[in-house]
Amino acid sequence: MIAMKTLLPVFCLFALCISLRATPPNIIFILADDLGWGDLHCYGHPYAKTPNLDKLAAEGTRFTKFHATGVTCCPARTGLMTGKFPATFQKYPASYGFGSHVTITELLKKKGYATGHFGKWHIGTVLEPGTYGIDVIGSDQGATGKHRQFDDKRGRDAPIYDQAISFIEKHQEGPFYVNIWDHISHHPVNPSQAVLDAFGPLELDESKFTPAMQEKFETCKKLGGDPAARLRAFLADVKSMDDEVGRLLQKLDELGLRENTLVVFSSDQGAAPLRDTDGADAKPKKKAKAGSDMDEIRLNAMGYAGPNFRGGKHTDLEGGVCVPFIARWPAKVPAGRVDEQSVISGADWLPSLCALVGISINAGDFDGEDSSKALLGGVHVRSKPLFWKTNSERSDPTMLADNWKLHSSNRRNGEVTLYDLATDPGEKTNLADKQPEVLKRLKDQLATWTATLPKTYEHGDDKTD
What we know:
Alkaline Phosphatase, subunit A; 13% strand
């Protein structure tokens, strides 16, 4: 009897530990729009004011080799939601949705999660509750699924966080899954005076940036803009988003949800080029009348790819597809860690979450792979290459296998480039002629993949990004 009394507390403690381990985590996925790899202070920006995201990184793990699945908004979101590479969809998801493909929100809903989506949509035209297994879809969506801008002195995305926080309060008993998909820092970057004042002044030293960013400053000057003022506007917009992230994290603390909530922050692709061009020397995609307000606002596209990369949105260069990725889950994710080894993808989000919460899936149905080991403190070594291609028959495909990045071409006499990202993350030295065996191996793999893609694509009416 005495022995039983002695062991009883031990049994209770053991049962409690099992219960805690079995408690599924709440999950919050915050997705910025067009935010470059180097646009946060914790990623090295000399002028960014992002204390809340910096704290999130300090309390969790910051990844340096996370790759978006697309170079514009819908393709990147497609990978996150479905675990599939966007080019595998014959019908463009922004116009037609995901068809028969299962989504992470549907899988989590079946697992007992309350699901919410707040902010940008751009993954189909159907927004009724229940779409993709989502219980609540934020009220900032129009009938076509395109977002509208809010006029709020706190910043344009503050109402999104109001709705997300309200959802979390209602479902605090958990488990819940929430997408918070910001409009920041997508065009138009046009912060209010209140947001500018909250950021404060900025004295720009251009020498603190890479030559590629300095070229952006020079382009701004040639177009009649002041780089310091334009950069200040961009960073003030980003700071307003960081303020809202801080408000969200504080609410988690108030509700006692910190320890068992996985909070992830990322971006859908790299920084938009100045005035929304397709390349450094391209003309504006949507040319505004010279001197117009819209033309002026486009000069605020001052996103930064960071010290190592070149390129940005609309390109498969690392500056276009390698983006910030921060994860905090105090119960599981190591704090203060920087993972510079694991190459992970937006397509991994679905299989990784399924592994974390105990959802059984057929791995062969997805292009991504379970990289949850990296989230939990290990190093993820990819077994599958990463592929990029837009939903166009003649677009050029790209792939990443190990450290090798191959940019192929479907154009006659088009240039094929091969880079070793281990020594050349800026993709400046083409090794195609010097590494013929690697080139052939990757070209064969890329050709095998492209042969499986649709022969034609349907885009519908939605061609926005």
